[in-house]
Design goal:
The protein has 304 residues and is mainly beta. It has three helices and 25 strands. Strand 17 and strand 18 form a beta hairpin. It is rod-shaped and about 125 Å long. The termini are far apart.
Length: 304
């Protein structure tokens, strides 16, 4: 029995690997000194790390409450995220459009990760309707070119990106959308989403809508700001008369087309369209004898 047991022990020694001391494992943040491993393995302990290794098996390193496993035959690496970046760091998107953000982790060994981790996304400021869990941004509608801020975080690491939201349409903002009035003009006078600022409203009680005041260049909050039209008849020789029509105020960048109707249904142009400079009243004469039985109006068109 003793002879057989001794022979078995000798064979086991012949099959064992050579014994040697392992060198230190070092990064920019830590250093682990391996102990001499015998036929059954070994372990090493420091204030921050504990490692247990088995010859021919695997080595497990535990640090900061987590762990990493190094398997036999594979190269193992311990790394630590040191910073987070978002790409693009700045970009432009049209209102109502989509923009994809990407988070990048920079590691202490100089490499980067672009997948395999899940950042938390957040709208920091400005006209961003939403940002999905994958970093897909949906831009809100705006009344002017605007800036927005979005952020990403992973653990204690944070990063941000500046997004420029372009105003593509001048009549698509909130309550003011599609009413024929520039969104910027409405926000200037009434703020955002004010029912008194929609195109059909008459905030000052003049009887003239915001749509007309926008084209006519009038203050929509001033009860005294009105576009006036007057008609006077000037007798001529015999029984005929001339109609003299005055209208205003008139401003630069607008065209004023005087029109006449005998039944308030069909209208025809009296003038060829007057372009006016400065704040003034204009006077036109209609030589048609039938004018004394008709009606007049002025079509005001603002140049965009």
């Amino acid at each position: 029995m003793s002879f057989t047991r001794t022979a078995f022990f000798s064979a086991a020694l012949l099959a064992a690997p050579c014994l040697h001391a392992q060198g230190p494992r070092t990064s920019s943040h830590y250093s682990i000194q391996h102990e001499i491993l015998d036929g059954g393995g070994g372990s090493t302990v420091s204030a921050s790390y504990a490692q247990t290794a088995v010859v021919g098996g695997s080595s497990t390193v535990r640090a900061d409450g987590g762990h990493a496993t190094v398997s036999n035959g594979f190269t193992g690496q311990i790394f630590r995220p040191v910073s987070l970046a978002l790409t693009p760091a700045s970009a432009a998107v049209a209102e109502g459009g989509l923009l994809q953000l990407q988070a990048i982790l920079h590691l202490d060994d100089g490499t980067t990760l672009m997948s395999g981790f899940t950042p938390q996304w957040q709208v920091l400021s400005g006209p961003i309707s939403s940002i999905s869990s994958s970093g897909l941004i949906t831009a809100a509608r705006v009344h002017e070119n605007s800036s927005a801020g979005v952020g990403g975080s992973f653990g204690s690491l944070q990063a941000s990106s500046i997004i420029q939201v372009a105003n593509v349409s001048t009549d698509d903002f909130g309550l003011y959308a599609g009413d024929g009035v520039s969104d910027g003009w409405q926000v200037q006078w009434f703020g955002t989403d004010n029912p008194l600022g929609i195109g059909s409203a008459d905030a000052s009680g003049t009887g003239q809508s915001n749509l007309f005041k926008y084209h006519a260049g009038l203050d929509p909050l001033d009860p005294a700001a009105r576009f006036l039209l007057t008609v006077a008849l000037t007798p001529e020789s015999g029984e005929s008369s001339l109609a003299t029509i005055g209208f205003g105020p008139c401003f630069e960048g607008r065209t004023y087309q005087l029109q006449r109707s005998l039944n308030l249904i069909h209208w025809e142009d009296v003038s060829n369209g007057e372009s006016n400079s400065g704040s003034a009243y204009r006077t036109l004469t209609d030589p048609d004898p039938e004018a004394i039985h008709g009606f007049y109006r002025v079509d005001v068109l603002k140049a965009e």
